[in-house]
Amino acid sequence: MHLTEYLKHRGGKTLISIEIVPPQKGKSIDQIFRAVEDLIQFDPAFVSVTSHAHERVIQRVDGKKVLRVKRKRLDTNAICLELAARYGIEPIPHIICAGFTRDETEDALYTLNFHEIDNLLALRGDPPNNQKYKPRSHGHGYASDLVQQIADLNKGIYLDPIDNPLKTNFCIGVAGYPEKHPEASDFKTDLRHLKKKVDEGADYILTQMFFDNSIYYRFLEKAKRIGITAPIIPGVKPIYSLKQLTSVPNTFRVSIPEEFKEEMLRYETREDVRKLGIEHTVRQCEDLIRNGVPCIHFYTMSRADPTTEILKQTFGARAGRRIRF
């Protein structure tokens, strides 16, 4: 079932969704399963699973230079298939440009279609270690190019001509940045890039996290003004420690309201800081619901407890009432 269909038949209710991060190679996936099991009581409409470019390094082995994959995360698509099989959840794998050729992307998409994964999130992806992005040879430089490849597959257009080709059936999502992409020269340019992704075939937009709803509402208005009609799902993330006041803006290039930061810094105990952070996200969610957003996406970072508390306070009475088909 396409995500856009879930949104269309939601009956005026605000759906919820969550995002999880695959574990590093050699680490257990149990944390992800525990997080999903804690959050499944709220019946998320979908669970998105991030994807990450491998960290490739050149090392000397027996006197020869060898390109090795030093760090990688568990396969995104494998996690999506397991979530669907184990929990009956609608999974959304992140499909990224970074680290992949167009042929590898086509193979992955063909396999996902075989497993009846209908929804995707198409992203450029970030290179490891904050390096400057550089596509692989015969890879995509921009998310809009990736969207076009997926949209072509939906029309039966493959990289190599095929007689009587199978058409895929993907609902394509893309990222939107209410405070603009960090690499964009200005907000107008970034918005034009988003419009291009929609014009290439994107069906919905999922925003980067924000901590001031007015930023999201301005983004909606400006997107509408340039002709973007695809649904725009807001993404939120709880701040539950003082360390995050610095780490989250530095990592994700987003702003945190000064008033909220000053209030958090007045508290001394971890529990008080955590409580205030959760209260802030609850207020965000309640305001978004009042303003009729179709869905709220929670960036959990594979930790369930803060999001669980927020959902209990915001959606507790409505848990388990997602529309099913």
Any key phrases for this structure?
alpha/beta, 325 residues, TIM Barrel
Helical segment count: 11
CATH architecture assignment: Alpha-Beta Barrel
Strand order of the largest sheet: 1-2-5-6-7-8-9-10
Mean pLDDT: 91
Coarse structural class: alpha/beta
Describe this structure in words.
With about 325 residues, this protein is of the alpha/beta class. It has one domain: TIM Barrel (Alpha-Beta Barrel). Helices cover about 40% and strands about 20% of the residues. The protein has helices at about 5-10, 30-40, 75-85, 100-115, 145-155, 185-200, 215-225, 245-250, 260-265, 270-290, 305-315; strands at about 15-20, 45-50, 55-60, 65-70, 90-95, 120-125, 170-175, 205-210, 230-235, 295-300. Strand 6, helix 5 and strand 7 (about 170-175) form a beta-alpha-beta unit.
Summarize the structure.
This protein has helices at residues 3-8, 30-39, 76-87, 102-114, 143-154, 187-200, 213-225, 244-252, 258-265, 270-290, 305-315, and strands at 15-20, 46-49, 55-61, 64-71, 91-96, 119-123, 171-176, 204-209, 232-236, 295-299. With 325 residues, the chain is of the alpha/beta class.
Ordered list of secondary-structure elements with their pairings:
Layout: H1 3-8, E1 15-20, H2 30-39, E2 46-49, E3 55-61, E4 64-71, H3 76-87, E5 91-96, H4 102-114, E6 119-123, H5 143-154, E7 171-176, H6 187-200, E8 204-209, H7 213-225, E9 232-236, H8 244-252, H9 258-265, H10 270-290, E10 295-299, H11 305-315
Parallel strand pairs: 1-2, 1-10, 2-5, 5-6, 6-7, 7-8, 8-9, 9-10
Antiparallel strand pairs: 3-4
Helix pairs in contact: 5-6, 9-10, 10-11
